[in-house]
Hints:
This protein is of the alpha+beta class. Among the domains are: 15-162 and 359-433, Periplasmic binding protein-like II (D-Maltodextrin-Binding Protein, domain 2); 173-341, Periplasmic binding protein-like II (D-Maltodextrin-Binding Protein, domain 2), CATH 3.40.190.10. 47% of the residues are buried. It holds the Pfam family SBP_bac_1. This is ABC-type glycerol-3-phosphate transport system, substrate-binding protein.
Amino acid sequence: xxxxxxxxxxxxxxxxxxxxxxxxxxxxxxxxxxxxxxxxxxxxxxxxxxxxxxxxxxxxxxxxxxxxxxxxxxxxxxxxxxxxxxxxxxxxxxxxxxxxxxxxxxxxxxxxxxxxxxxxxxxxxxxxxxxxxxxxxxxxxxxxxxxxxxxxxxxxxxxxxxxxxxxxxxxxxxxxxxxxxxxxxxxxxxxxxxxxxxxxxxxxxxxxxxxxxxxxxxxxxxxxxxxxxxxxxxxxxxxxxxxxxxxxxxxxxxxxxxxxxxxxxxxxxxxxxxxxxxxxxxxxxxxxxxxxxxxxxxxxxxxxxxxxxxxxxxxxxxxxxxxxxxxxxxxxxxxxxxxxxxxxxxxxxxxxxxxxxxxxxxxxxxxxxxxxxxxxxxxxxxxxxxxxxxxxxxxxxxxxxxxxxxxxxxxxxxxxxxxxxxxxxxxxxxxxxxxxxxxxxxxxxxxxxxxxxxxxxxxxxxxxxxxxxxxxxxxxxxxxxxxxxxxxxxxxxxxxxxxxxxxxxxxxxxxxxxxxxxxxxxxxxxxxxxxxxxxxxxxxxxxxxxxxxxxxxxxxxxxxxxxxxxxxx
Length: 569
């Protein structure tokens, strides 16, 4: 979804804006430090970041990975905190011409605007001398050419491609360990299963550690909460994948876009939340809770479960163990609609082929674009990807019988410090250099944390690990691997319609209508009231002509498929 917040398991998502001096612009985002070292002067690039680690590391050469980059290329990134609406910032910089040398651009429409304005440099001339980039990114380059009308390459993307051995989004539901044990470790899957389970649990445990026990908590106040989490059950089977928070979803089997709200599984998603609410099993504060509040509640063990935000569970479980409550740890489990279970559906494991949300360009203001691309080219190599995702050999990993193995130092740091990866320069915070979620040539994930068995060894508490064994799982992702099917999104997640077009304006209206009515649906006092609200919503919805939006998505999809085929020749 435009749960673009969903990340890769190697750190917290970061918004990155790269900035170096643009001679004569007067911008305060300028380059600094020209002291020569060897044949090349030091090249300091300011990077504006928004992440939990942005106050921890000020310069890349404070980290082990950053020191390697400086030693090899004499390039240093200086991290500057950034806040605000990033797309607005991108538009303002383009309008003023005061944009930095290297820039992360969100989504295809803005990439095209930068290209059409002459702000993005074509990279084709650098490809001729590239040692690694062309081969490493061969499957992706045809897709990356799509934003330009001239067919040239102006960008690369971060955090793609992904393969199923390295990426399991699996953002379903987490349930408290002690309640599972108390009820005999039932095999929960359908929404009916969870409602009955939670009803028994909250009746048996009205309080937890002196506080009122909460049912399921969810960060519905996040921008991606009501718009994304609420209808998301459509993706829990094997027919559809999420492609954003707009009005469409993608039918992976028929390879076409369909309307989100009119989908039967979407309705089941709202019905599930409504039933939780009516049974007193949905925390009423979920409507106003952000992820920060949700994390606080699960850190105390007060909630019986939490929905979707699985990336917080390991740190939460560690906190509970430290607080002397390991039995209150949370177990990540699958959930499907009742219909999906009756139909015996597998679960799609969504994999992104393209990720325009993390598009990176070199702008016309770059002082030395060739030098920047040389760095990107090297990070396309095996050595570069392993440094970017696994860290420094001897510090973060060692080789045992030819295999990369995490060091005790890494395990201890990652387990105890939520900012450890940022402090080491590993992963998402440096993903603009071209991070790929794939398997290395040594048949191990570049990022060893993506080896579930290896990461479980030190990221799971003993209580949680024992529970997975009792459930009959080989590891914490075992059910998902056995019951999941790889679902590469191909072009789907990269399709966007012009927001100023008639279809774009309809799209905005149907999303606003869906979000506006979401709380009403969830808070309906009975099934009959829910159905009445739903039918009234359908009447209002159809007046907007949502099919016009769906048709436009499919039209663009077909056009871009033809272009990719042409660029692949």
